[in-house]
Design a protein that fits this description.
Blueprint lengths: L4 H8 L2 H10 L4 E5 L2 E5 L9 E3 L2 H6 L9 H14 L12 H14 L1 E4 L2 E4 L2
Antiparallel strand pairs: 1-2, 1-3, 4-5
């Protein structure tokens, strides 16, 4: 499970994902409060904290069940590269959670992770 500063920041800024957490939150999920990451089973105790969805939870957010195959990765990364402006650096995803969060945000909300922000694709 990715609990890195980058993934926490990506999740914090993904308001659309945070709005969904009550619907698919499970006992033992990861939450970030300030600098620390905690695992708890009492959802109500974590109001105001950032939910860090696991890879399986991110996959459940995709309307059509997609396989995490190399074909999916190749198509997604190629499409991402064609979509971003040449002046941006291509993001470096350090975990499957980061990659899946980027995929969910692009496919479901038409947003890309650019310069540490989610930007709507024009």
């Amino acid at each position: 499970m990715d609990t890195s500063e980058t993934y926490v920041k990506m999740c914090e800024k993904a308001g659309e994902i945070q709005e969904q957490r009550r619907d698919i939150w499970e006992t033992g999920d990861f939450f970030s409060r300030g600098l620390g990451v905690e695992v708890h089973c009492d959802y109500d105790a974590f109001e105001g904290c950032t939910w860090l969805p696991r890879q399986d939870q991110l996959q459940e957010m995709i309307p059509l069940k997609m396989s995490a195959s190399w074909l999916f990765l190749d198509a997604f990364i190629r499409d991402y590269m064609e979509t971003i402006d040449e002046s941006y650096d291509f993001p470096s995803w350090d975990s499957w959670e980061q990659l899946w969060l980027a995929f969910v945000m692009k496919e479901c909300y038409n947003k890309l992770w650019v310069n540490e922000e989610w930007e709507t694709i024009k």
